[in-house]
Design goal:
This protein is mainly beta. Helix content is about 0%, strand content about 40%. The protein contains no helices and 18 strands. A hairpin with a 5-residue loop joins strand 7 and strand 8. The N and C termini lie far apart (about 60 Å).
Length: about 325
Amino acid sequence: MIKDKNRAGFEVTDYDVRRPLFIDPLIYSTYLGGNGGDEGYGIALDSSGNAYVTGATTSTNFPTMNPLQSSNAGGHDAFVAQLNPSGSALVYSTYLGGSGDDEGFGITVDSSGSVYVTGWTSSTDFPTMKPLQPGFGGAEDAFVSELSPTGSALVYSTYLGGSGNDYGYGIAVDSSGDAYVIGTTDSTNFPTMNPLQPVFGGIEDAFVSELSPTGSALVYSTYLGGNGADEGYSIALDSSGNTHVTGGTSSTNFPTMNPLQRSNAGGHDAFVAQLNPSGSALVYSTYLGGSNQEWGYGIAVDASATLTSPALPAPPTFPP
C-alpha cells in the first residue's frame, strides 16, 4: 500500500497475533564469488532445504569449503557448492575442472545427498572417475559427474561426447540412481545406445541420455532433432520413468508425435517432448511458438503425470 511518494506500507488483515508476522519474503540472499568472473547456472534443493549450486568461475580465490578440488586448474572451472538451509554457511564448495575451460550448467540431488552435475569441458584432463568415456572426444565435450554427499569425492565422472561440440545443460535422477542428461551436440558420432533417433539430423541436435547408477554404461542415448539447429536445455522425470524435455528448434522437420502444434511457426520455436521409460518412443512431441523466436529453458512435471505410456501410433519419421 502506497503511503506517499517517500513511504510504502502493508495493510495486514486479521492474523494470529500469537505467531510471528513476517513481511519481508526474502529468506536469504548472498554473493558467491571471488576476484574473477563467477556465474551460477543451476540450483537444486534437498528435503532439508540445503541449496546446491553449479556454475563457472575464473576466480583463483572462489570461496571453497571441504573441497574436492581446492584450486582453479585453469581458465573457466566449473564449481559445485552446498549452502546450509539458512544460507549462512557453506557445507562444501569446490572447483571442478581441468586445464581448459569447464562450465557446470545442470545440477540435481538424490535422496542420499549425492549430487549430479552436467556441463561442458574443453579440458583433456577433466577429473574423471570410473568413466563411461575416459577420453576427451574433441572440441568440447559434455561431462556428467556424481559427487558424494560430503562433496569430498567423485563417485563417478565421465566425458560424454563425440568429435564435435557437445554441451550438457540439464540433468535429473531417478530413485534408482540413473542419471538423465539433456544437451546439445553437433557431433555426428555422439555416443548412442538403443536410440530413438540413431542419426544426426543436421547443424546441431538435442540429445537425451540415461546413465546407469554407476555411471559406467548408457541405458539409452539418442539424438533428437531435425534439419536445423536443435538445442536441449531442460529435463524432468515423472514417477513412471517417462522423460520430459524442452529446448529450441529451427528445424522444419523436428520429430513430432501427437503434437499440440505440428509445424514450425517461423524462425526458432520452443519444443516440448515426452519419451517413454525406455527412451525407445515419443509419447508426444510438439513445437511451441509463434512467428518470431522462442526457446524452452525449463520444465517441471506435476503429480498427475504418473500414468504409464499409452499405446503409441507409428513412430515418427526422422531425417536421413
